[in-house]
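Ticket #1097: bound-state structure for copper (II) ion.
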Amino acid sequence: MAGGHDHAHDHAHAHHHKESFITKYIFSQDHKMIAKQYLVTAIIMGIIGIGLSALFRLKLGWPDTQFPILETLLGSEAAPNGELQSNWYLGLVTMHGTIMVFFVLTGGLSGTFSNLLIPLQIGARDMASGLLNMVSYWLFFLSSVIMVASLFVETGPASAGWTIYPPLSALEEAQPGSGLGMTLWLLSMTIFVASSLLGGINYIVTILNLRTKGMKMTRLPLTIWTFFVTAVLGLLSFPVLVSAVVLLLMDRGMDTSFYLSEITTSSGQLAQTGGSPILYEHLFWFLGHPEVYIVLLPALGISSEVIATSARKPIFGYRAMIGSILAIGFLSFIVWAHHMFVTGMSPFLGSVFTFTTLLIAIPSAVKVFNYITTLWRGNIKFTPAMMFCIGMVSTFISGGVTGIILADSALDISKHDTYFVVGHFHIVMGMSAILAMFAGVYHWFPKLYGKMMNKKLGYAHFWLTIISGYGVFLPMHFTGEGGLPRRYYENTAFPMFDHMVDLNELISVFALIGVLGQVLFFFNFFYSAYRGPRATKNPWRATTLEWTTPVDHVHGNWPGALPEVHRWPYDYSKPGWDEDFVPQDVPLKPDEEEH
Amino acid sequence: MNSLLILIAVVAGVAAMIQLVRLNEVTSEARGNHSEEEVTSDENNMMAYGWLIFMFLFFGFTIVLMYKYGYGGLGPAATVHGEKLDWLLELNYWIILPVFFITNALLFIFSFKYRYNKNRKASYFSHSNKLELIWTIAPSVVLAVIIFMGLKTWINIMFDAPKEGDPVIVEAYAEQFNWTFRLSGENNALGDSDYKLNCGPSTFKNSQGEIVSIDGNPLGVVSKDFVLAKYAEIDSSLAQLNRELDNAYSIEGGDYFEPEEYVQEKLKKIETLNVLKYRIQSGIESKLNDSINGMGADDIYLSTELHLVVNRPVTFNFRSKDVIHSAWFPHFRAQMNCVPGLTTTFTFTPHITTKEFASNPEIQAHYNNINEIHNERLTSLGEENEKVDFNFVLMCNKICGSAHHNMQKNIIVETEAEYEKWYECEDYKEKTPVTPRLDLNGKPLVYKGWRADSDEALINEVNMAVANASITEEVPEVEVEVVDSIAVDVPVMDTTVVVENH
Ligand code: HEM
Ligand SMILES: [Cu+2]
Ligand SMILES: [Cu+2]
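RESOLUTION: The complex was predicted; output attached.
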């Protein structure tokens, strides 16, 4: 379909009636269907991931209470008499982190919105390769299934934290979860990476080659810019994770010693010497840090789009926004060792990484100020999507400022691996990305399903989410200030943490409210997909090309010729026009300046 | 407060459910018109006021948290560098908190103020180079200050501090799920250690030809006798494995009875043991002349709490036996990972004694509170109440397995006189499993923990193994002459064990 547009159009029509159920709904190569598949998979993974956090929060909030529901859900191995066992606590935390970061906010967020929006917003009939796109989704699906299946392994799922540092993850003797559970984790992640690489290549090629006439790079909506940089980051960093994983697999199964050295286990000394776990940490975080931005950039792109549309005002500083996206993308590759200040790596390296890390604060600050200026003298319509985006800017600020403390190698000595970190990254990455993902769903639901979601439920869902989100993660900074380490199954072994009991209970109460609040979303989503009121073509009165396509999906996106682009995507409230928006495919008036 | 919150949670949940049911009706009613697309001005205003209310709740919550829990409970830093860190942290908070409040407030206030009004048009204000420049340069300047102050402190802690004031050397050895300390004794130098010599209970012929037993060499300290002890352990394991393989071999069939994988496992184990033994011979035994090995003679092992002298810098050497751990001293604001295969270090100077620290009124009030909560919990569990005293602690801060949440050791900072008293009175030796400590005359000071095994049969068996193993016989039994150029007056002993003659 990369060929001439008219040809593609004919092609689409020629095959329209031959589609069977299987090729239309299951092995579909249509980007819109694939986007929906990603979204639904991510929602199911989200239910599991967030559900797990509710389960282990029960233990932290009420350490001495027995919860029979835990035994019912997890089995008597994991929670005999309703008391969660410590290795299972670690297993749940690990699975929660892995699922949320990779499956919901990487696969789910990028997979859904890159697939949906790239062809629609650049004016293309489909992705450059529909086949690769389909394979990418099914690999994602397969890796999700394997990851979830590992929860049912008798010895428990991987339990070494989502960062799976060896030797803990390499030695079966070190903990039960490092057996079959870890093998499945590694297998699943390898397939996951294959999926994101196929997806990423496709996104990049499509954006570079399939833009419609007039769609210059400087006329791309910011969503597309963020998806583009995200795909590049993934392409450069995920292979490094695969190498890390392959070396780990060899250490586990073939007695190599990439990461293992001078270890004595319960069954005696290992012969391996000369390896270093620090090598693994470098490799992991070379992916791990860009991964944070792989999660965050699409969130920023979605917010830019929704904020401009809802404020009826051009996004402020379009070029500065592109500049900061590129700067963040570049810098994210040279900051990874800020996760390793106290590993024993050379303190000189620590100085370098403190410097580069704090530099990222500059483009991030630029983005925040630009968002705020976009609101200034706007005319804001609080659609549910807009509510989530304003919430997202707030969490990006609140989580960003504590990053300044953690980026400082000296201060990180007393903050590393405490709950302060858990609070920080949940707000800046977890909440920001989740809020933006919800915003995306509310905003583009009419494009996905041709229906509208319920607004009132959307508002209720928003307030419950932001209140409980801050309610959970703000207090964590304070338990962290009190020295409380993360990944602790209980805090009662140290009487010095006893004064935190009510704070921990408060966190758990908010966590439960937050989790229950998501029921509103799930209901709204599935209900509206089937029975929601029918959407009109351009319900938010937006300028971008996806709103020029028909409400009912057609193969090839536009029934007639492809639209031609004449202006940038942010002509909201432009002087000289009656309407407060001018779509991108409307030609300039004779004496009109572009912007 | 918490039951109230739970109540709120329940009410919110119920309200949400009611909403759900109502929605069902609303949506079916509304189907057909576009009510979901248009935000009515009532709704818009409601959301706008929502942001204002949210702002007050959010800031209020933050301030209440800061007021009530900002103290964190750790109290002032108990080390010299910790005070600098706390100062730096406070400086950072003075910068980021205003940013946090102001930018969030602007976001919420603009949202409120510029809510939709159909009589107004948004301004078409799309860029301003001047503004962009301002908010690139302003954060850059602030960050320059933060980076400069941060790096200054970091360099001070990591590069300067270890070179100042002749620190005492202490080893902290981490394993699943315990810490062991090793004091470096009179010579302030730790004896060499090697993971290959890590060994459990062993009975062996020492370098003087006597049969002795030891409880083990848990830290893998290098000495001639520990090498012999390890050989004995390896040999008896090899003998055991070979016996098992022999028994599992059927002459007639020419096959093993045991499942293939067990046999393979045992063969692999034998190979590993042989590799270890070879490496000990070639890598350790041959270097035993080095003076450094003598440094361990006066080392003291502590499996109980650690005592430190106030105002005396201490350099920790961290090692790990199995997986990564992290030594986290919250009150000292010190943390360093313990990585297998790597020795990491951290230097700090505790500048207040435990007693002084505990008598700080803030800490006292805090611990009264903790005692109350702690005993309330114990009572509710039907356990006996106890008094919780303040202590500096060491805990693990890197996920390391199922008991990661419970790896603790107390650390007592005291005056020099108190420390001397503790050091001399040998109290700690009661609790110390292995204490190969010699006085300055080379006489073993401590006998406890060293166990002379009287199990005749075992000794004979091991003896046999030692005698039979050809490799061991190559071990030269001559006294090794050691030249110690560093600490001349420290006698270098090649044996530190208590001997039982036969
Ligand atoms: C209701 C929502 C959530 C709650 C209550 C929650 C709570 C928690 C808690 C208590 C931990 C364990 C901290 C520890 O012991 O180290 C944790 C870990 C983690 N969470 Fe969440 N979380 C939530 C949502 C999210 C989201 C949206 C993300 C997406 C980024 C996320 C990512 C992670 C990660 C990466 C970890 C670290 C796992 C590890 O230590 O290996 N969580 N979460
Ligand atoms: Cu990072
Ligand atoms: Cu640990």
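RESOLUTION NOTES: The radius of gyration of chain B is 33 Å.
TICKET STATUS: resolved
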